[in-house]
Every structure is written in C-alpha cells, then in structure tokens.
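4.2 Preliminary Data

To establish feasibility before requesting continued support, the project team ran the inverse folding procedure on a target of 212 residues. The structure was first converted into the token representation described in Section 3, and no sequence information of any kind was made available to the design step. The complete token record follows.
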C-alpha cells in the first residue's frame, strides 16, 4: 500500500462519461479508468491499472430497486452481493444499503422487483469484480453510485441486445432500435441521456466532498 500525505485512489466506472465530473482534490490523486460495462471489463480495467493504491472505488450509474430513490440520488454500498464494503462520510445526502451487482441491465420493473427481494436497494454491473481486486490487494473498497433509472421504470429499448460479444454497448445498435420505433425509442433515448447527466453531475459532486 502507498504511504504518503496524498492518497492514491483507483476509481473504476463502466463508461468515461461517468467520470467526467470528478474533480481533482488536494488530498487525493485519482486514477480514473473506464473499460465498459459488466464484471469482466471492470476486472480488466482494474488489472490494467495498478495495485499500488491506497483505496479502490467502483462508481457510476445504477438502477434503483427501492421506490423512494429518485434520479440523481446517491447510493453508497454497505455490501456488494453480500460481501461487506467500507463506508464513508459526507455532508451531502446519501442512502446506504446493499448493492446487487449483475452482468446484465435490469430491463424491466419485474426484474427489479426480483432483485429487490434479495435485500438490495440498487443494481449495477461492475462492483463485484472491482471489490474482488481490492480484497486481493488488501486495500479498502468503496461503492458509490448515482441513480439514473428508478424502481418503477423499465426500458423499451433492449440494452442487453445492444452489447457486443465483449460486453460493451454499441451505440449503433441502440440507435437502430430507436429508429425502428421512433415514437417510443427516441424519447427514451433523450430521457436516458438527461437522467444520466443529472446522475453523473451528482456523483461528481458527492465524490468531491466525501471523506473516506
């Protein structure tokens, strides 16, 4: 583990846009990495970065499983798939609770309801793999997520079908789906873009003000 006045923290997200509002801090050196959605790609991102860090964070967007969570709300994982994680402090509002980490987009309200019955309050796709690396390296792990879709929202677009064989989302596939049903697909794309930006801004502000 690194020992210095400035902590070195590896921050892993699925997509670059999830990291764009994270600002530099005088007490932290961020190593930012994004390699695509899902555990395999997140694990690759961690493996290509470094184990010579003081802490690891898995950050990004999540789907709410708890109905009182709204767009842009911050969720801090108390556990990921049952494995305990480190907690942090912040003057900003957040909700702490278990996270479900899976290798697919939770597309429907019924799928979210099934995941909610596990006790999880939010679902995402990368934290389990990143947590495994942090445990291997013997450094603290934190999971910080911002809600981009609520527990009562599903997707008409099949985002899982838009992933390629490596697991990455292909924009062309998403746009092609939207073009085939423009009356529903295009508004959904606009909603996803708007909600994602709200969530990413909230995420960046929260990370800039938390203590860990």
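Position-by-position output of the design step:
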């Amino acid at each position: 583990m690194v020992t210095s006045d400035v902590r070195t923290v590896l921050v892993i997200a699925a997509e670059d846009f999830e990291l764009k509002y994270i600002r530099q801090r005088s007490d932290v050196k961020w190593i930012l990495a994004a390699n695509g959605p899902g555990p395999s790609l997140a694990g690759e991102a961690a493996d290509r970065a470094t184990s010579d860090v003081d802490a690891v964070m898995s950050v990004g967007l999540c789907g709410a499983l708890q109905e009182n969570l709204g767009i842009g709300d911050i969720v801090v994982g108390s556990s990921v798939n049952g494995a305990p994680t480190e907690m942090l402090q912040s003057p900003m509002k957040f909700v702490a609770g278990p996270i479900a980490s899976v290798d697919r987009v939770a597309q429907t309200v019924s799928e979210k309801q099934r995941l909610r019955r596990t006790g999880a309050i939010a679902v995402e796709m990368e934290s389990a793999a990143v947590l495994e690396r942090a445990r291997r390296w013997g450094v603290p792990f934190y999971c910080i997520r911002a809600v981009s879709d609520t527990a009562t929202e599903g997707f008409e677009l099949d985002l899982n079908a838009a992933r390629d064989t490596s697991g990455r989302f292909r924009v062309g596939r998403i746009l092609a789906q939207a073009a085939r049903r423009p009356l529903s697909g295009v508004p959904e794309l606009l909603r996803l873009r708007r909600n994602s930006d709200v969530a990413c801004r909230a995420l960046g502000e929260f990370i800039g003000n938390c203590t860990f």
